Every structure is written in structure tokens, then in C-alpha cells.
Amino acid sequence: MLKLRNLSYLLILLFIISCETNIENNQQEPTKQVEVLDTISYKKLVEKVDSLKFIKPKKEQSTGFYKNDSMSLEQHLISFGLVDIQSVAPNIQVHLKYSTTDNFVGIDMYGELEKAFCQPDVAEKLKKAYQYLQEEDSTLTLLIFDAVRPVFVQQKMWDTLKMPIREKTKFLSNPRNHSIHNYGAAVDISLATKSGEELDMGTPFDFIGKLAHPRQEQKLLKEGKLTEKHIKNRKLLRKVMKKAGFFNIQTEWWHWNSCSRNTAKRKYKVVR
Description:
The chain is an alpha+beta fold. The protein contains 11 helices and 7 strands. The radius of gyration is 29 Å and the shape is globular.
């Protein structure tokens, strides 16, 4: 696109110079033909075009949106009293999707952050969920995609997701109301083998659509859009998470709250 724009400027400059030169020469020698390239070199034209300032399209940052010269995002989260989940339950696996571009907005939100942080009591609940999972299947572990989510990230997601508000709120809390993620009291989670292979849940994490809805599972199973294996894996995740004291929402199989929004407001600080 920039090369085409440069070429356009080059053609315009050639035309202007040709007109100016013809006018000047016609005043002096009306019958003389002027060859433009004899009066100004191609090299000088290119230099003139290159010196013009173009407005380049803005690109989304790919190294995270947290900007603080005095502390890292990890230190920022610790300052709110949050803990690294793996410091409490080291066998739980973590793959922060918002520290990559492999998420529904396609933007790296967290930059260099690799650890999942949450409230200390939430981490203890996750430790219990892991222990319950071992009782069911000792070859499996929990896989965390997201835990605490600062409000500035929630706002960026909200602004990026282009759909009617009624639909948007099925997948994302309005930043004004604060998500339970914003308090460090919710996790996005799945199951994986201890060797790191994620179990098939029928949709990827962050899938926007009915296939991700727990309440639609039996209908989708009858329609052949989900399989018995998908349902079995989801039920296992639900069993251990509910036993540990979490509850899920009905539009995302991966989202689990440790408490209600009102309880979170009473117990914790919102993470900005």
C-alpha cells in the first residue's frame, strides 16, 4: 500500500513539474518542446517523495497494555494481595491465553506475564479441585487459561468485541460493573493430561456461540454437534470444580466463579 502511495505521489509530482516547466518555457520559447526528465532527475523525484510524511495505520500492541515503569504487571498483581496459583498448587498447568494472540480478540493483553494470579482463598479452592480430580483420574490435571483480569484488560476486550450489548454481555461483563475476574475470584479453566495435552471439550476456549453453552449440551448432542466424549470431559470438569466450591455460567464451559459478584465486592479489592 505504501509503495502504491509513493508511486501516486511520484506521478503527481511529475505532472506538476511538467506543467510548471511547460508554462515557464512557453513564456520564453513558445515553440520549444520540453522533456521533463531532462530538467529534473528521477533520483531527486524519489528523494522528494520519500521525504513526504505518511500517516501509517495504527497496529495493536503485541506486548501487553500494562505500562508502568516502576513495577511489572506481576508486581502490580502481587500488590493487590494476589498469589501465583502454582505456588499453592504446583501441579496445575497454566497457559495464559491473553499473554498470546491466541484468543477471541487476537491481541496480546498481558505481555510478559506467564503466571496466573488469584485471591489466596481461591487458590486453595483450586488446590482442592486438583485433589478431587486425582481421585477421579490421576493422569489428568487442571489447565488455567485466565485468572485475575485487571479492569484495563476488561475494558480493552469490551471495546474490541463488536456486537450488540445484549449479546456481548453473554460472553463478557461490562467493565463498569466489574467482572469477578477483576477481583481475582474467577478462573477460565479446562482439563489436560499431565503431559500437556488438552482434553477435547467440543470447542476451543473463548468460543463465542451455542456450542460453548453448558445448558445447550443435550440438544447439541442430539444434533450431532457435540459428542459423548465432549460431554463426558465437561461433566468431569464440572464435578471437581463444583465439589471444590466453584460455580459456572451457562454460556461458557470454561468459566468458573469462586463467589458471587456481591461477595467479591465485599471481600476483595477490584484490580485496576
